[in-house]
Amino acid sequence: MRSPDGPWDEAKLIKAIIFDLDGTLLNTLTSISHSFNRALLKMGMPTHDSQDYRYFIGDGVYKCAERCLPAKNRDDATIKQLAELERQDYAQSWQTHTEPYRGIPDLLEAAEAAGYELAVLSNKDDAFTQYLVRHFFPDTNWAIVVGHSEEVPHKPDPTGAALIAKQLRLEPRELAIVGDTSIDITTAQACNMFCVGVLWGFREFAELADAGANRIIERPEQLLDCLKTETSYVHHRP
Predict the structure, then answer these.
(1) Are 143 and 119 in contact (CB under 8 A)?
(2) What per-residue confidence (pLDDT) applies to 230?
(3) What's the CA gap between 200 and 219, in Å, rounded?
(4) Which of 31, 94, 179, 223 is buried most deeply by CB count within 10 Å?
(5) Neighbours of 95 (CB within 10 A)
(6) Is the peptide bond before 156 cis (omega within 30 degrees of 0)?
(7) Are 209 and 234 in contact (CB under 8 A)?
(8) End-to-end CA distance of the chain
């Protein structure tokens, strides 16, 4: 990958890590799919298998609502109605069927001990982002947690990542974005940040590789070595 001002300097020291939330830190697939399916049932719409939501989730609640509605019902009013019903349901159910991925708590502890600043940037609504991060990672010293709001558009808009860099008083090249979808990779590229794709989340290797991830890893324990070296855990297209 080339940055706007020349080749990426992979030897540059990464000082902060920005984590995506859904599909990266937390396995929320069952929780979100059940919440949307209950909202769909209230509207008399067909529901979906939980695995289908791997490809619906990622761009915020309205885009997810659009994707899980029948094509003939994807007008603005119906999308908004479904999104609001899902929000109401999720406000009561966000703690259920949700847990950190295996190895994530240990990773966060090790990253903090190693001196990295830690942040979260999610396309989930900011209120829910704050609730989930505080609830599931109460012992982590987060530098900043940012979800979608009127001031912070959905990724891949670079506003949220740039805000985090500014608050941490770091250059973009000193931050890494870690996520499970091409949206996270594109966000990092837009900000000239290092990008690491993860394979334990909602999407596959091909999507992350095609998006241009600097590194793709299979397990959380690989991340810190990946940030320190140029060759550790690099995945090549089969």
Answers:
(1) yes
(2) 44
(3) 7
(4) 179
(5) 12
(6) yes
(7) no
(8) 19
Residue pLDDT, tens place only, 34-61: 999 999 999 999 999 999 999 999 888 9
Helix (H) or strand (E) segment spanning residue 6: strand 6-7
> What phi, psi does 205 have (nearest 5°)?
-55, -45
CA 89 to chain centre: 21
In percent, the amount of the chain with pLDDT more than 70 equals: 91
Class at the top of the CATH hierarchy for domain 13-27+99-228:
alpha beta
Question: Where in the chain is CATH 1.10.150?
Answer: 29-93
pLDDT tens per residue across span 190-203: 999 999 999 999 99
Q: Locate CATH 3.40.50.1000 in the chain.
A: 13-27+99-228
Lookup: tokens for 86? 């899902």
Closest CA to 167 of 189, 145, 135, 152: 145
CATH number for the 29-93 domain, one of 1.10.4160, 3.40.50, 1.10.3470, 1.10.150? Answer: 1.10.150
Alpha-carbon gap, residue 140 to 46, rounded angstroms: 40
Q: Is 184 exposed, middle or buried (0-12, 13-18, 19+ CB in 10 A)?
A: buried
Residue 163 has pLDDT above 50, yes or no: yes
pLDDT, residue 203, reads 95
Lowest mean pLDDT among 5-19, 146-160, 191-205, 220-234: 5-19
Residue 21's identity, in one-letter code, is L
Whether cis (ω within 30° of 0) applies to the bond prior to 105 is no
Contact 202, 57 (CB under 8 A): yes
Structural tokens at position 13: 């020291």
pLDDT at residue 12, rounded to an integer: 55
